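Escalated from tier 1: zinc ion holo job.
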Amino acid sequence: MNSNVKLGRISGIEIGLHYSWFIIAALIVFSLGEHFRLVNPNWGAGEIWIAALFTAVLFFVTLLLHELAHSLVAQSRGLKVSAITLFALGGISQIQDDATDARTEFWVAIAGPIASLIIGFSCLGIALGLGWQRSTEPHTAAIGVLVWLGYINIALAFFNMIPGFPLDGGRVLRSLVWAITKNADRSTRIAARVGQVVAFLFILDGIWRYFSGAGFGGLWIAFIGWFLMDAAKASYAEVGTTAALRGMRVYDVMSRDCVIVDRGMSLRDFVDIYLLKTGQRCFAVEDQGRLVGIITPRDVSNISRDRWDETTVREAMRPLQELHVIAPDTPVLDALKLMARNDVNQLPVVANGTLQGMVSRSQLVQLLQVRSVLQLPATYRSTLQRKGEDLRKGA
Ligand SMILES: [Zn+2]
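Tier 2 regenerated the structure:
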């Protein structure tokens, strides 16, 4: 999920909001306004709305602290974190690398709930210091705000510890199974299965509540369940993909049949001679044997057809500086991540300034399909791959 509103950086991590956050922020302000009005009849209207707004902002800060806890622990253990995005259902830390050991996974996962617990109890502690007593309501606005934040953060810590992958609790469960079985893939599968069961219970519970008159609240629980179910299924499927592609390098899978076109050629000739004749999608543009850019059907479609005669391939291509290129020995999984991060479908593979080939998402999907048709186990390696792996081991 990409953020729509960027707020700045903390420790090199980009902090942003997704549009869906604003819907939830508005809901929180209105329901808090209602809540404060009911519980504290002594507050004036201005006081109620200022307190509600202020609480919503502080709630946002505490969510951010929860995510920062995950991210900073990840950073301290050598993992790269690119961004934190807050959206309708909470926050997401975009940690770019997967934890390489169970211990790291455990601490990164549990850091968030621990942060929420500390925040929650601190808020309640300060409220007590200000003279909060559970039995005496109404109380002052400051105490009202602190108590709400205290309870919500403690609730958040417990909700996140539900062992449904990819919630924090699911990750903690995964790290524990990982530590016991010493098998990362198996632990993800087990955690994802438990996550599906938990999600199913959420949906059942939500539907049950809906029909016993809880209305929107019930549907909301069912919705969270559906979201968890989807996420658990995706993580389960990802294990298969990851396992099949692990150990593969880009040169094992890249297509090498890129056609080199002359940079001075007009787009009209390029379309007629290459695009419509070969059906190929990858064309490299070179200048004295060095790659200067690539041109795809999409780049051509950006130029209006009546300008095809006067526009050269060089003018329409995407220059090398704007492309993300990878080296042939890049792991395929890293290439996939790079494509996802930059939202591109293919990457040129370049060594010593010359184009070696292209790797694309659709091609990797086809590769996985072939493997599944042949019913190859995830551990199956082709002769070529085994040779490459032996070479690297020897090196
Ligand atoms: Zn978390």
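The chain has two domains: 5-245, 250-394.
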